[in-house]
Design brief:
Blueprint (H helix, E strand, L loop, with lengths): L6 H27 L16 H5 L5 H10 L2 E5 L5 E5 L2 H10 L8 H10 L10 H11 L5 H28 L4 E5 H18 L12 H10 L5 H9 L10 H28 L7 H11 L7 H32 L1 H13 L7 H7 L1 H13 L5 E5 L4 E4 L11 E4 L4 E5 H4 L3 H4 L9 H9 L20 H18 E4 L4 E5 L3 E5 L8 E6 L1
Parallel strand pairs: 2-7
Antiparallel strand pairs: 1-2, 3-11, 4-7, 5-6, 8-11, 9-10
Helix pairs in contact: 7-8, 7-20, 8-13, 9-11, 11-13, 13-16, 13-20, 16-19
């Protein structure tokens, strides 16, 4: 008779063996089904291409591979799992717009969002569940709502500018070196706090701030070996997100955000402001008007965590890259400053931000094109599915690709947005003028900019983010000029951040001078 003490160990061992066998079976079947798809041979038996991707310039191998193998290729991840990389425009349209709910986020990505944010709109899958959550958030991020929030964007921009002016004054000269990425993150947090929740995080006071440091620390340490293991393995073993120091950091950040979100929601319910213009008031109004749309507190807190996080990481990265590109090009910076000053002494309106500041719009479009904050758009085939292609895979005549159930696929945004066939031979060069040339020539391609994705699951806060960033750039250009004395490189944390070449965490020290 088996000892009762040994029984749990035997059950665990049997379960582990079963799961491992199923994993191997899936790897073998997927490999056979995709054997006609070209791609690089694995550079590591254990890690596949993950080591190369992690330790190289973000996106560089995707560019190299697609130049060599075409618009559809496969590569190997950790422990042999297959990944499809797709830049074919017909396939992208099908995946993102036509059959979007057949391609959910991979299990590892969903586990990350659940562990860090909860079961909010970035985690939820399925048409009905997603549309329910999107309906709850969309009114607060609509064009009408963002129009009303523009004064708040300028207010937080002025607070950041005042802090920079204080730094320069304390230097007893007309200029000072300022580390931009820290301030960009704090600006993004204060803006979403005030605009979405009427809550002042007070991140721009200049002192230490627990929330800002917690959120920054969660993803701004990707140079550590432990971060590589987590990134390489969470696709196939999502439970790794709960292990070790990184797992503890994830729990701490989620708790910190959750405590703040719960307090904001309780305060909003006590205030009972149904006539406000922020996210909280709009949610309260919708609940009163449509009781069936009502979310419980756990769901609401998850949405609030998600809103704060989405407003922090991508926005702060875009701000940093915009200031970096302006710091490299004094002529462009001066031309943009002239456009801003010509708009008048008052703060440009929502209509000005969206339609009338043409050079500012072109600069931001070019930043999004060359520095997309999210490098890869990841999905997983929910079932075995046939995907249409604009051209057959090399060596075949098939105008479609059958993707086995469970296959992870990714759309490398940087490859799509620097395609020479679309953008010309200078596709790798930062040149905002190209947007005027394209408009004059009547050029318009689908999926020109995928930085916010597209289709039913595109970024709901795109308009909010673009207006807030433009408001900040306008405010800063009126008061400062920028130069960059360091060699800067891109590195991948959760988003693509800048840093001084060879260093660890994000860093963008600029020489900021009064004008």
């Amino acid at each position: 008779m088996i000892s009762l003490l040994l029984y749990p160990a035997l059950v665990l061992g049997a379960a582990t063996t079963y799961l491992f066998c199923r994993f191997v079976e899936h790897i073998v079947s997927t490999d056979l089904a995709l054997q006609h798809v070209p791609g690089p041979r694995p550079s590591s038996f254990i890690w596949g291409e993950e080591w190369l991707l992690y330790h190289s310039t973000p996106g560089s191998y995707y560019v190299r591979w697609h130049q060599q193998y075409g618009k559809v290729l496969r590569f190997t991840g950790a422990f042999g799992h297959q990944v499809l990389s797709i830049t074919d425009p017909r396939a992208i349209k099908y995946i993102l717009s036509e059959a979007v709910f057949e391609f959910p986020k991979p299990k590892g990505v969903r586990a990350w969002f659940k562990a860090t944010l909860g079961e909010g709109i970035l985690w939820v899958e399925g048409k009905e569940a997603h549309e329910r959550q999107r309906r709850a958030l969309a009114p607060a991020l609509s064009q009408r709502s963002v129009r009303n929030l523009v004064p708040i964007f300028y207010d937080t921009s002025a607070k950041l500018a005042a802090q920079w002016m204080k730094v320069i004054d304390n230097s007893r000269s007309d200029e000072a070196e300022i580390e931009v990425t820290k301030w960009a993150g704090r600006f993004a947090l204060d803006t979403v706090g005030c605009a979405a929740f009427s809550y002042d995080f007070d991140c721009l006071s200049g002192g230490p701030h627990a929330l800002a440091e917690s959120m920054d620390g969660l993803t701004n340490n990707e140079n550590k070996t432990s971060s590589f293991y987590m990134r390489a393995l969470f696709w196939i073993f999502p439970a790794i997100l709960s292990i070790g120091d990184k797992g503890e950091m994830i729990r701490k950040s989620k708790l910190e955000l959750g405590n703040i979100a719960s307090k904001m929601w309780r305060d909003a319910k006590v205030a009972g402001d149904l006539n406000g213009k922020n996210l909280m008031s709009i949610i309260l109004r919708n609940e009163a008007k449509f009781p069936t749309h009502k979310m419980n507190e756990e769901e609401l807190v998850a949405q609030m965590r998600t809103t704060i996080s989405a407003a922090f990481e991508p926005v702060s990265a875009i701000i940093a890259w915009t200031l970096y590109e302006l710091a490299l090009n004094v002529r462009l910076q001066n031309e943009l400053r002239e456009e801003v000053l010509a708009a008048g002494l008052g703060d440009p309106s929502y209509d000005d931000l969206t339609s009338n500041l043409l050079l500012l719009d072109a600069v931001l479009r070019e930043v999004l094109r060359l520095h997309p904050p999210i490098l890869e758009n990841h999905h997983e085939a929910a079932e075995t599915i046939s995907v249409p292609l604009s051209e057959p895979i090399a060596g075949t005549s098939d105008a479609y690709l059958v993707i086995p159930k469970g296959t992870i696929l990714e759309i490398p945004v940087n490859v799509v947005q620097t395609d020479p066939d679309v953008w010309g031979s200078d596709a790798e060069i930062f040149r905002p003028e190209r947007w005027f040339e394209r408009k004059k020539q009547g050029l318009r391609h689908e999926r020109e900019i995928l930085a916010f994705s597209e289709g039913p699951r595109s970024c709901i806060g795109k308009n909010f983010a673009l207006c807030e960033i433009k408001s900040l750039i306008i405010t800063l250009l009126r008061q400062f000029s920028f130069t960059c004395p360091y060699e800067i490189e891109a590195f991948q944390s959760f988003v693509i951040r800048p840093r001084i070449k060879g260093q660890g965490p994000s860093s963008l020290p600029l020489i900021v001078r009064k004008v």
